[in-house]
Every structure is written in C-alpha cells, then in structure tokens.
Amino acid sequence: MMRDGWGPFFLALHVATIVFLIAVLKQYHFVDPALYEAVKDAKSADILELASQLGRFDLVSMLLGMFGILLGLGAIVGFSELRFRAREVAGETAQIEARTALAEFLNNSAPSIIRAHVDLIVSPSSSSNGDEVADAYKEEAKDKNG
Q: Residue 101 and residue 108: Cα distance in Å, rounded?
C-alpha cells in the first residue's frame, strides 16, 4: 500500500533515471564514427538495412525494454496508490451515508415503530394519568396468567 510520503521519493527516482539516461545517451557512442561514414557512403537501399549495419536495433531494443519496465512499475505503483485512495474515500463516504440513513430512520420511522410496540405491551387508555396506565398493564398481566 502506498502511504503519504512515497510520492516525492518516486518523483526523485524518476528524475534521477531521466538524468542518467540523458547522460548515458549523450556520452556513449552507439555507433563507431568510421562505421557510420562507411555505411553512409554505401548508399543503402532501405532504412532496415542501414539500421542493421549500424547496430541501431540493439539501441531500440534496449530503449523499448527500459520503457516497458518503467511502464510496468508505474502501473503497479499507480494501481496500489489508486486502490488505497479508493478505499479511503469509500470508507469516508460510507460513514457519512450511514449517519444520514440512521438519522433519517430515527427521525421518520423509529417513533412509529416504538409507538406500535408500546401499544402492543400497554393497552391504550383514555386517561392521561400514569396510575391508570399501570393498572391497565397489571390487568393485562392477570388476564394472561389466568
């Protein structure tokens, strides 16, 4: 999993890689200058023959291989970073939605459900006196026990 702080490390790694490649490509002679002049004087018929004579297929293969490796590593790192961020955002969103749904349930549905269950336990009374409600409950309990 990618954590905060890895981004600058990988940025520095990529910059160092690019600087290294530029330094290598500028300093190294991939083709012997004498061979280059000989091939240029030979007036090759097509570009494939010219590239074969100069040895440029090796350079292209090396560059494509390095590009493929960097692309693969970038894909792996990018996927793990994206997965980490997606889990983080999904968790935060789930918490917000759960709080909203719970508040809506408690404000809209819960009072009527609680009232229905209380009405099942205690028979409704026309009086607002608590003693009469308690007496009604005692009478129900006696009727059930027989």
A: 10
